[in-house]
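Justification of resources, computational component.

The compute hours requested in this renewal are based largely on the per-chain cost of generating structure records like the one below. Each record pairs the submitted sequence with a full structure-token output. That output is archived, and it is also reused by downstream analysis tasks.
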Amino acid sequence: MTAHHEGGGIPDLDLGPPPPSQYWLALAVRSVLGPLVTMVVLKIAFKWADVHADWGQIFLPALVDMLVGTLVRGIGYALLKTDHFYHIDDGLSVFALLITLKFTTHASTIRRAMSVAVAAKLVNIVMWTLLSVVILQALFG
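The structure output for this chain reads:
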């Protein structure tokens, strides 16, 4: 405490949103890799739920999940200048994923679609938390 009072204040930790060029590049990379990661996660979730799905069937739900999440993140950053959305982006994208799974895959009941969507989204959040650290470190050192 003494050092804080004598040192002239709190050091700037630069905890604000990333610069626009970094944010948009990271969002673009996530948009390209997003469907691939989601497809792998969905394949595992379908296997876990004992529902058959081939790779072609899970592409559209993975694409819809990525599009909704990217739109929310992009619009949120453009309007609010923040990169923290408190999982509103994930909530809306899991809803879109649920609807798409219900109508385009063998998980045609709401119970099956929900079990696959929720399991896939939880694993997806964890995967992207880890991947974002690696990707941001590789891009911006």
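The two ends are 32 Å apart (CA to CA). DSSP finds five helices and no strands in the chain.
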